[in-house]
Amino acid sequence: MILTVTLNAALDVTYxxxxxxxxxxxxxxxxxxxxxxxxxxVARVAGALGCEVVATGLLGGVVGxxxxxxxDAAGLAHDFLPISGPSRRTLTIVETETGEATVLNxxxxxxxxxxxxxxxxxxxxxxxxxSVVVLSGSLPPGLPADAYAELVRLAxxxxxxxxxxxxxxxxxxxxxxxxKPNAEELLRATAGAGTDVQPGHPDxxxxxxxxxxxxxxxASTRGSLSADQPEGASGGGPEGLSVRGASxxxxxxxxxxxxxxxxxxxxxxxxxxxxxxxxxxxxxxRGAVSGGVLGGGLAGREWFGEVVGRADSLRASGAGxxxxxxxxxxxxxxxxxxxxxxxxxxxxxxxxxxxxDAAVAATARALLLGRPWDALLRDAVALxxxxxxxxxxxxFDPDLYVRLLPEIMIEGLPCPx
Length: 417
Ligand SMILES: Nc1ncnc2c1ncn2[C@@H]1O[C@H](COP(=O)(O)OP(=O)(O)OP(=O)(O)O)[C@@H](O)[C@H]1O
Ligand SMILES: [Mg+2]
Known about the structure:
Shape: globular
Bound molecules: adenosine-5'-triphosphate, magnesium ion
Largest sheet: 10 strands, mixed
């Protein structure tokens, strides 16, 4: 069984308007409400994949009741601890003219210390029968900063942690088997680690047993991924690891829900000619790397080495493996067994919110089944791309998922054992 934990569950309210004008008055064309929060999204996707899954966490007030009702309506097994504070809403305003989404997140209920202690008992009992526990999302006010570390330590099975900021960095101390930061979360979690962190994949002995890479993987897919060993197959630029910024900008230009590829590995011409080019507009990861935390000029293999180094620093802090999601550029797995990269054949147009949750659901299933890292990545990247094509977080397009699976490009550099 997969147990998902959503400590700050939400009622996700989505308004559709033509175009959002700051300070203006708008006619809302459609209103949708459904239970959300990252762990709940993961549970929905894992359930749709056929996994036995139970959603837990904290729920309170009228909004908490609505969340419970919606989970019942969805046929999702759940066992949330009632608390006194009201669960939160999130409001997403989608502009139909552009596909842009504006998100407003409430902080969540104030959780009392005795409620947290009660949840620890509640969780311990549920986790006993869970092979995989997924801890996702923000912590509501009142919880200790190391709440996730406490839960990781209580879980006898494998644990996947998907969080940001202090919830992630403090949670890593509990030694989760896998963490799944996106690029920005990785940078935030390792701010200060800088370029002096070298890729080394030290076996810190912290992670519990995790899936080993497949022995029958064709050699052609191996050995081409290294910070200091460029490979020729990527085709996305001279540095061997191109970055497009389609993760938050792929809504337009799609054909049948799928936008033209950026061509990092397996595709043709990038949309807007941006693949691999330094200074591309909307280039989220490169933007985050060169313009954000690191400040200046990293490109291609340099930032690849940087990402691997930073992921390794989180492994040294206690994470068994680090899956870095890179929006439309796929995912990177930095593990004790080696480094793998998986890239979708093309950027998918749609709603990328919740794509990471689909990737986490695939990860949880792969841990449950003991799948190797390359298979895990292929599945996670196909499923999360298919989630982009579905308008609502927690859903995915099953046909696109199946179509994409064989098209995912995998590269790996397993460590010699
Ligand atoms: N436009 C896209 N086209 C194809 N695949 C995508 C696209 N955007 C995201 N993905 C897939 O989804 C995965 C997760 O996306 P992303 O890195 O945006 O996660 P995230 O920021 O954690 O998302 P969230 O937290 O909103 O669920 C990526 O690793 C990639 O496999
Ligand atoms: Mg995420």
